[in-house]
């Protein structure tokens, strides 16, 4: 938003066309060359001050008003048009956005014509991250009428499930199914099945497997008899255990092999594999690997302890099944892992053992923060649950119905934040958002809001942009100048409807002079504008353009880098007129107006980087179009 405000009120107003010479030659970027071109007139005053005038033609129904006062640090502008772009002629709405040093908020609503194929839409999203909690809820329901090829390709798709994580457990269960209207498989008209369950035992693990599938003629020789099948399974499952330093004992529970009429072969087997020694084998392998790492400062005992912590993971439940035919696929799972905190402990030990001083690209502070985050999760018993339920179904042959629900909730979040603070980590950002959208008759309505709180939000954003080379030199220079100007508040209001569109923007800076381009003749002090018929004129006031206005000639003024050959020079004895003065009262009133955007009442919380993204989008759109 500050980019938007300064782009409109700063780059255009304060520098306007003052930088008439080549911007690279002056050490300025194109951003600061302004969008108004060369000044049409310059009025020199007796004391050497001057007023630059820039004229631009307005289309029918267009309006513009600009006010700026550098000393007060105030910028204010309005732009309007009765001619709305044809792409948006059936769109109406309004939006207000406010950016302060530690808060960004935007609230708006919109009504648009419903697309013909969108029979129904309902969206409800909300979420908040603060010191007290971290949660998200989302619901979507949508019907696309006469969806054509999409409905022909898919029948029904559905999935549901949950994922829960704590400091020492990970558990997930769910199912997924898909039905294809057109079969895509060239295999036999049978359902292939894979069922797998794993049990954690005192000696190791026991895996139980049921396998039903087609095999090629090339593979058939390994499955014809029980002995051949047993040998094939051993080569697949027992050999894997041996590679990991353990042992595996396979028991073939059942075996069925047949040749089908289409020339393919079908196997139906059930077996178990009892694994032993795998954990010891893995522990030895991991310990050996840790000792070989030159960047890790670990002893043999340390390496063994770390490796043992990693292999302490316990499988509480592991059930997986998949059934696939020519037209359907069904998958389900139920998995729960315990004692995952042992892996966290191992990771912390690795961090502590890392010889970061000799490791290129490793940030010592980041490693310390990671350790603090992991230990804070353990100390607070942080638990997060994520659930979902979604489906896509075809109705009445061509209508596509999509429904989805997702939610996320965190327990002990406040304890986690407190534990982080105790370890010197303030993650710094709070966020709240909401969005509701729905079809109503022939229209779509939407209402949304977003608030982000963060200490020194503006400064950190523009400092980041100024240092990011991928943003380009112009955006880097603009961001650096804004940051140096110490913005206090920026505001934007936009509205659109049958009568046209209007945008009002304003900003207040503690040190607006810091945004002034260097190597300019004169010091811009403010700006104002007026409209006469279809012509708008921007007046930029500058102090000390020349030393003595009574002694200067037109040739002297034309020799200045701020004045081009096409600019008409008016010397003090050649003109007598008044210019509209900047209306700082209107700018201050606009910026101090109450805004009903709900704040996130927190001091800290995880960051999301959303503001930087919004600023990038807004500024790119502004800079791409001068008027």
Write a structural description.
Keywords: Signal. This is PGF-CTERM archaeal protein-sorting signal domain-containing protein. By secondary structure, the chain is of the alpha+beta class. The protein has two domains: about 1-80 and about 455-625, no CATH class; about 165-380, no CATH class. It is about 25% helix and about 40% strand. The chain has 14 helices and 25 strands. The protein has helices spanning about 1-15, 150-155, 215-220, 225-245, 280-290, 300-310, 340-355, 365-380, 415-420, 455-465, 475-485, 555-560, 585-590, 610-625; strands at about 40-45, 50-55, 60-70, 75-80, 90-100, 105-115, 120-130, 135-145, 155-165, 170-180, 190-200, 205-215, 245-260, 265-275, 315-325, 330-340, 385-395, 400-410, 430-440, 445-455, 485-495, 500-510, 525-530, 535-545, 570. It has a 25-stranded mixed beta sheet, with helices on both faces. A hairpin with a 2-residue loop joins strand 23 (about 525-530) and strand 24 (about 535-545). Helix 1 runs parallel beside helix 14 (about 610-625) and helix 5 (about 280-290) packs across helix 6 (about 300-310). The two termini are about 15 Å apart. The relative contact order is 0.23. Residues about 1-35 and about 600-625 have low confidence and may be disordered.
What amount of the residues lies in strands?
35-45%
How many domains, as an integer?
2
What's the Cα radius of gyration? 34 Å
What characteristic shape results from the CA principal axes? elongated
